[in-house]
Amino acid sequence: MMDSIYTGMTGLLGFSNGLRSISNNTANMNTPGYKSSNLQFSDLFYTDGNLAGGNGGGQLGFGLDTGSSSINFKQGELRNSENDLDLAIDGQGMFIVRDASGNMHFTRAGNFQFNGDGVLVDKIDGASVLGMAGNGGLGQITLAGLRTSAAQPTSTVTFNGNLSNTATTQSATATVIDAAGTTHSLTLQFTNATGASSTNNIWSVSILDGTAAVGAGTITFTNGNINAASAKVTFSYAPAGVSPHRVTLDFSRDVTSFAAGNVTNLAMSSQDGLGAGGLTKASFDGAGVLTLTYSNGQTAKGAALAIGQFATPDAVRLIGGNRFDAVDPRAWQIGQASSGIFGTVKAATLEASNVDLSQEFSDLVIMQRGYQSSSQVISTANEMLQELFTMRGK
């Protein structure tokens, strides 16, 4: 009878632990990147069923044993968020973080942000998110040296329109950006060097910055169309306090010189200079590469996220905080997203928990019934013992 009570107690303990596993799963149903786990059960040892020492009699078991938990690594639902630095992995792989103690962990929860020092960290505890370093190792992902986009001085200014070949002089304006990102407005004065001609029409070009001449050149038209050999005027522009740079005025496209009264419609169509720009957006592309956008329309690339993946579930250990540790580092592979076995990084997205509530509730009923059954076995064995003691007293 006592053996039956002890066996029933193993059932109570086992189903109690099973209930704890279910409660942990349901409590984390809204935890980003959470992976549900299931408690493994097995039967305990056996002994010869003939307790009197004779032959045969079969075997009698001694109850229930609880083993380790198995982690369900099925991918959770990918949900959009409004934060460009919320990241998820569509496919295999985990983000890699390093805590304040220097320990490396793995996670599927990509709740990241750049801290005040410009380092990409986990929002929960500030652990650094690791990326692929240039030497093949791992390092921090940082905005150092990437917060601004340098100015690009104008190298080419393009024009379109018509210079009336009956006019003596005409003028136009050009916008030029210097190496410091400052914008300047230059005046172009066109002087008809030959007057009207049925074949050739030559214009001298003077370039003024205010009242100061900064460049000059000549353009030639034949039958109203620009000659390719003289379609560009190049000069060295050196505003005060800025290094000089060469600027080309390009009249090779859509610039003509036909009779059109004394009014010209020649005008600047574009220039390729850029002012300095500040960082307006930071995100990651599908390969996990940091992509930066600036106020001047420029973009730049930064470091790539490091992604880890295990070869066997036995190499993974849950430690809490949405993180895993590597039990056997040799069973892990580290690389970049969208390459090899690794999945694609999704920006402004978080992976939801993979807890299946319908399955958890079904298991809950089973655990409850098992617990009730084990408690009933103990109650019955106890009643039988009481009956035995009553018989002995008679």
Overview of this structure, please?
- It is a single chain.
- The chain is α+β, with helices and mostly antiparallel strands.
- It has three domains: 111 residues, no CATH class; 141 residues, no CATH class; 116 residues, Tick-borne Encephalitis virus Glycoprotein, domain 1, CATH 2.60.98.
- It is 16% helix and 43% strand.
- It is built from two helices and 32 strands.
- The strands form seven sheets. Strands 7, 8, 11, 12, 13, 24, 25, 26, 27, 28, 29 and 30 form a twelve-stranded antiparallel beta sheet that branches.
- α1 runs antiparallel to α2.
- The chain is rod-shaped, with a radius of gyration of 39 Å.
- The mean pLDDT is 89.
Furnish the topology, listing elements before pairings.
Elements: H1 2-27, E1 37-43, E2 46-48, E3 59-61, E4 64-71, E5 78-80, E6 86-90, E7 94-98, E8 104-107, E9 110-114, E10 120-122, E11 128-132, E12 138-140, E13 148-149, E14 156-162, E15 169-177, E16 183-192, E17 200-209, E18 212-222, E19 225-226, E20 232-237, E21 245-250, E22 255-256, E23 267-271, E24 277-284, E25 289-294, E26 299-305, E27 307-310, E28 316-320, E29 323-326, E30 332-335, E31 344-347, E32 349-351, H2 357-393
Parallel strand pairs: 14-21, 14-22
Antiparallel strand pairs: 1-4, 2-3, 5-32, 6-9, 6-31, 7-8, 7-11, 7-27, 8-29, 9-10, 11-12, 11-26, 13-24, 14-23, 15-16, 16-17, 17-18, 18-19, 20-21, 24-25, 25-26, 27-30, 28-29
Helix pairs in contact: 1-2
